[in-house]
Amino acid sequence: MESLKGLLVFSASILCFLSFSSLSFASFTPIDCFLISCGSSKSIQVQDGRVFEPDFGDTDVGLSTNSLITVSNNEKNSLLSEIHNSARVFTKSSVYTISTKQIGRHWLRLHFYPVKSNQHNLKSAVFSVVANGITLLHEFSFSRLGKKEPLLKEYVVEIGGSSSKSENLVLTLSPVGSSVAFINGIEVVSMPEGQFDFSVIPIPMGPGFVIPSSVALETAYRVNMGGPRLTPRNDTLWRTWNSDHTFLFNPSSARNVAKDPKSVKYPADGESVDIAPNYIYATAQEMADAKVMDQKFNITWAFQVEKGFTYFIRMHFCDIVSVSLNNLIFDVYINNQTAVESFDISTKTMALSAAYFMDFVVNMSTGSDKIFIQVGPSNLRTTQANAILNGLEIMKMSNPSNSLDGKVAIYSINSIRSDAKKHVKLAIFATLGGLAGLLLVSASCFLCFVCFRKPKMVKQKSMTWLMVKQKSMSWLSFPNQVGISETKISAGSFASMTPSRTFGRIFAFAEIREATKDFDESLVIGVGGFGKVYKGVLEDGVMVAVKRGNGKSQQGLVEFRTEIEMLSKLRHRHLVSLIGYCEELNEMILVYEFMAGGPLRKHLYGSDFPHLSWKQRLEICIGAAKGLHYLHTGASECIIHRDVKTTNILLDENLTAKVADFGLSKFGPALDQTHVSTAVKGSFGYLDPEYYRRQQLTEKSDVYSFGVVLMEVLCARSAINPSLPREQVNIAEWAMHWQKKGQLEQIIDPYLVGKVSIDSLRKYGETAEKCLAEYGCERPSMGDVLWNLEYVLHLQAAARQSLEEENSNIIPDIPYSIPRVESGEADEIDIVSHGESDVTTSSGVFSQLMNPKGR
User: Out of 331, 419, 643, 688, which one is annotated catalytic?
Assistant: First the structure.
C-alpha cells in the first residue's frame, strides 16, 4: 500500500511537470555557440530545437587533415539522434581548431556512437582526446563501456585565458597504434560569466577558495532530486538532469515532493536560472514520515566515481516544504563528513521557495570509490525533523598532469589553492630571496666580528639558547593544525580556555592538583602502562579525564609528544578531544574531555553495566569506524592509530563512540610509498599478523584490529583468553572458524540470541571476515567497513519492521555451551571512567542507511 502511494505521488509530480512544459526561461544567448555534426553533409535539427551544422565548410571550424573519412548509418533507429547516424573517422592524429570570440570557460560536449562501417570497426577503436592541453580521454574504447546507447561526455575548459595554451579551442583526436579515432558531434558553448567562480568548501572542512580557471571539469552526475529526467530543452544551458531514484541507497527513506515551478524565486546574488532551472528547485526528496519529532535517519545517495581525482560538488536547495521561515533545519554530509551543520535555507534566502546552492570539493585519492551524499535532521533543531535536497551536480576536476582520465597523480585540495596563488608566490619568493641573501651576508659579518671580540660570551649564550631550545621543543614545537570537526561542544564548555601554540590549553600544575583533589586515589578511573587516569573537575565545572605520566613507565616522552602532536591535528565527533596539557615540574599530564560511559569493553563484559542491544552495538561500531575512517582519509595526512581495541573506544553518556589513545599512532605512507617500515607496536590479540611478520605498517593494520573489535562486540569476550580451551583462546581464529562454517550464531553473546536478524548477522560476519583477511591488500578500507556496518544496521531495522507481521526471520534460541569468562588484562589502559557526569554533550548523529519506520 505504501509503495502504491509513493508511486501515485511520483506520478503526480511528473504530471505537474508536464503541465508546465510550456514554461519559458529567461533566454541565455552565448557569444560562442558551435554545434557541429561530424561527418554529416547537411544541417541537422535535434529534438530540443538546436541545429547542428556540418564540420566541413565552416570558416571558424578547421580540420588539420585533408584525408577525411565519413561513415553514416542508413538504418533508422528511434533511439538515436540524427547526429549519431554519421561520424568523422581519423586514421592518424587530427585536430579540430575552433575559433572562438569569448575568453574564459566554455562547455565542451562530445558525442560518440560507433556507426557501422565496412572499413573500420568503430566499436573496438582505441583513441585519445585532448582539448587545449587537457587530456579528456586516454586510450578510450566504446567497447569497454558495455552500452549500446550513444555516449555524451561533457566538460568545462578554459579558452584564451591566462592559463590556456591557445586563443582557440584545439581538439586533438589520436588513434592508438593501428586503430582509428572517431567522433559524431561537438558542442562548444561559452557559459555565463562567473558560473564556477564561487567559493568552494573543502571536505574535510577548511578555508574556502575559488577553483582556478586552469582546472578543467568533467560532468560525472547531474541529478534532479524527486523529479523526472530533464532534457536540454528544459535548461538554458542545454544540460541534462537525470532522476535520482537509481542513486538512492534506501528509497523508502525518502519521498518526493513537488511545487509549481513558477513559484520558484531567484532572490540572492549568484542564483539564477543558468545555475539551475526552476524545474530543479521545484522538486525535492524529503525524509519519509517527515515532521515526526524523533526521526533520526538520513537520506543517502551513493555515486560511483573514479579514485585518484578531486570532485566538485554543487548542491541545490529550495525550501518548498515549509509553511514559515526557520522551520527546516538539517545537517548535510559528504562521505560521512559534516559539510553543513544545522543548515537553515531560509536564513540564506530570507524567503520560502527560493533557490540556493552550495559548492564543495572532496578528494577521492584514497578509500572508497563512492561519493555518499546525505541529509538528515540536526541535533540542534527545535523544529520537527525533516531534511531535503533538490538537485546535485558532481564534476571531476583535472589533476596536476592536466588529465581527466587514466592513472594519475593525486590532486590534493591544497594544490588547487596553491595554483590560484602560484604567480603571487613566485614574485614574493623572488623578493624575499634577495632580502634573505643580503641579511645572510650581514649576519655572517656580525657573527665573525662577535666571535673574534668576545668568544667566551658567545659560547655561554649559545649554550643557554640551546638549553632553552631543547626544553621548549619537547612541548611547544607542535604545529597548530586543526582538522575537521564533527564534534559538537556544548556552548561555554571550553570557551574560557586560553589559546596556546598547540591545540589546547596549557594548564598550571596547581590547576591540575585542584581539579583532581591533589590526585586523590579515589578519583582514579584507569591505570595503564603510561600511568594513572583521574577524574577531575575544572574551575568552570567542566569534567575532565587527567592522564598523569608515571616517571617509571616504559612509555615516556615519545608517546606523550605523539599523543599531543596527533590530537593537535585532529578534531572529529568520533575522536576523543584533547583539552590541554601540563608541562611544569617535569610532569607529563594530558587533559581530555570526560567520557561518562567509559571504555566499550566494560559494556561488553567484566562489569555490571546493562547489556547493550544489537542496535546499540552496531551504532557504537559505526561511530568508531567513522573516527578511524577520518584518521585514514580526513586529516591532512593519513594517520594510523596502531592500537585499536575495545578499551580505546570510549563512550559518552549517550553511548556515542569515540576513538582514544594516540600514543602509538604513526603518520601513514607518503604518496609514493606503500607502507611505513617501523618497529612493531600494539596490543596482543589485536595485532595485524602481516605487520608483525614484515614490520611494514599500513592503514589496513587498523582494519585488522577493528575486525577483532567487531568479533569482541559480537561475542562479548576478550580478544585473548588463556583460560579457555586452546582453539578458543584467540577470538579472531575462533570466530573465523565458525564464520567459514556459516554458523557464527553458535558463538554470539547469549544476550543477543533471538534478537539478531539472520541477514544482519550474516552481513556483519562477512564484514568482520574481510577485516581479518591474512593480507592487507585483501582487507577493505575503513570507508567500506563503515558502509557495510550501516547496511548491517539497515538490515536489522528492516527485519524489526517485518517482525510485526511475521516472526520467522530471527535466529532461534540455541544452547550456549561456551562459558563466559571475566577478563582483566593488565596491559590494557582505561583512559576514562564509567562514572556519572552532569556535563551535557550533544547526542550522536549516525549516518544510518535504514528504513525510517524501522526505528
Answer: 643
